[in-house]
Design a protein that fits this description.
The complex is a heterodimer of chains A (390) and B (423). Chain A has 14 helices and 11 strands. Chain A is α/β, with parallel strands linked by helices. Chain A folds into 2 domains: 126 residues, Peroxisomal Thiolase, Chain A, domain 1; 234 residues, Thiolase/Chalcone synthase (Peroxisomal Thiolase, Chain A, domain 1, 3-Layer(aba) Sandwich), CATH 3.40.47. The radius of gyration of chain B is 23 Å and the shape is globular. Classes of the chains: A alpha/beta (390), B alpha/beta (423).
Amino acid sequence: MMPRRTGYEGVALVAPFTVPYERYSIRNAQWFAAQALRGLLKEARLDKSQVDGISLSSFLLRPDTVVGLTQQLGLSPRWMDDVPTGGASGVMALRRAARAVQCGDANIIACIGADTNHVESFRQGLANFSSFARDATYPYGAGGPNSMFALITDNYMRQFGATRADFGRIAVSQRANAALNPNAMLRKPMSLDDYLRARPIADPIHLLDCVMPCAGAEAFLVMREERAEALSLPHVKLRGAIERHNAYAEDPVMIRGGWLRDRDELYAQAGISPDRLDVIHTYDDYPVIVLMQFEGLGLCELGGGPEFVRENTLTHDGTVPHNTSGGQLSAGQAGAAGGFLGLTETMRQLLGTAGERQVKDARWGLASGFGIVNFDRCVCTGAVVLESAP
Amino acid sequence: MTPPVFPRKNPVLRTQRMNLPPMGRGRVAHGLTRAAAVGDHLELQVCEECGAVQYPPRDACGTCLSPELDWRKQSPCGELLSVATLHHSNHLYFRERLPWRIGVVRLDTGPTVIAFLTESVVPPRAAGGAERTRVQVLLRLDRAGQAVLVAQPIEELNMNLKDKLQMETGCSPRGRKILVTDGKTAVGQAIVHALLDAGADTVWVGFSEPWKRGEEIARLRDVPGVEAVALDLTDARSVAALGGELGGKVDIVVSNAEVHRTESISSRPGTDSARAEMEVNYFGLLRLAQAFGPALKGRAADGPGHAVAWVNLLSVFALSNLPSQGTFSASKAAAWSLSQGLRAEMLPHGIRVLNVFPGPIDDEWNQNVPPPKLSAGALAGAMVRALTDGVEDLYPGEVAQEWFARWKDNHKALERELVAGGL
């Protein structure tokens, strides 16, 4: 018999840290990564030499990788990782770091998602994003991810009867959450009517379905629980984690993601059912994907997303507190750091440090990731369940 | 008088410069370019081991990992699954021509493609509806000369000439001002008529020695839309003068002037007749390209009726030398090579270079060549069709098609077969 997959017992997440977002920056991604590490050390009252593992996710760090950062920042880690999966990078960095600290390959690992945003950088990243994108999507209007998700949204609306107002409910509630997040880029109140009247970008996707690219970083530390306790560091526990890539490739247009395939294992690891979750952070680079995560992660059935958002309120004080930071739709998408946003916000909620947008008595939180539009859909999916430490 | 197809240009306005569609493609993806360049139907990679049809193009079978992927003709039929209308683009070419409609098509052979949609494609109905939207996926070359997929309704034979995708991937003579370099031959006369039948606005027809062939000029003189001009391709000053006069107006140049002698290397001593062939077939093209190329390049985005194409009348004997017409073949091979250089210079400016490779044409110089021979009318018709479809290489007629297939299959076999005689 195959041995059961090892659980994540004893893995602690510490010190969620955000380098404030800027719409555009003339600084390098390296600057944001460095400030993230500096912030982590300050939050956790650690010396640089105590960090013996580093995991980095960034689109614009090139020509450097995490290797270059060791010399730039004077680190001598015994474990490193470079996770190139954008919106799925936070979950994947955490999964890898968790195993490393469990095994003792590293004691304290800094997981960092950092990117800059120059005026031209988003556009320049598109033409050669992948060989499939270069050959088979970019030459068809160069719409970038907007165009691929417009096709996915159009199909989803037809298949499951979703309306623009359903997507609007997600965007509007996240904007309300963002009003309570001082670091969110977009905090101006937004009504459903504002959402519906936004100009078309890649119909059926309109302006307020799109995230705003920006510069910034998100980061956290991973270590064993004993170490966090010894250092008197408030922490949350990793209770379950899954990832899956290129799932359901047989669906001609994406209607579901890899979460659906592995979610039972996720909740089995955590020992809870989805209705126990107090706060949920999905990857919200287009609202249609939020619905697929609700469905894939067992909050509702496949195709039940539209009804689910009609029946629930998604603000931090709602029936399903969701993307309480405002998500990328309102907080902004700081490149690969967007894949960390849900994680750091879940940590804050479980640590009770989310300020005005704190979800009361939050114990169980879920953060999911979704990344890399290689051709006609994002390929990488993942999710983690976190629990507050008593 | 019928009004012009395209509105007259306001001479005060700045001439728009051409911004090309994205040029980037991987080497494997150029399998599509190869098929699109000759106007073939959809070709995709097929795994020789497991038979899986692949898209997007790749280096190994996505099913069984075999490296043996062969480009093969595919049914173009499929079902349209979803539609998006782009009102924003990150690329200047698209941005200047918004909106664009794209869709996901599941081909009957399996793979899913993203394609442009013609205006006549109706979006699919809501799920559960019995109606399915059937489309055919065509391979076309875009303004950058790169292959793109275009979906049109399955029952539609040809794209509407006014459809944006037809305008952007084809080079229809409709409404255009065209120079045909030689009007004295049967082929030249047929080309002029075919262009006019296809809706050309004006055709300037070159005559090298107007005093010699009054009859042919007279035949075209009274045809509306035709204007005879003096053009001697062996005379640099004559070519430059016409370039100065017409360069800023011409939308399509048809380089059809040729000297054709039926000499082998040993059938005639000396180089006089070979030199005469080269003087027109090769140097004439060079002079013409120098005189008209720059103007064409500058007008590739000059309003809706912009400059669009350059056509070279070559010969299928350019591919492999026909010994009995050895010097003619060589001059056409030289012109073919030069045309590739011309294409390399024109393509970055959005001008298509169409090379026409006919087999023997049914004219006085091929008197002793056995049939089938290509009639002037058939050649002209195929040329106009190829222009309209935006094709890059045309092999009109059965002889040319077979010759091209033999050459592609085994060029050494073709050489040996020609030693043995015949075509």
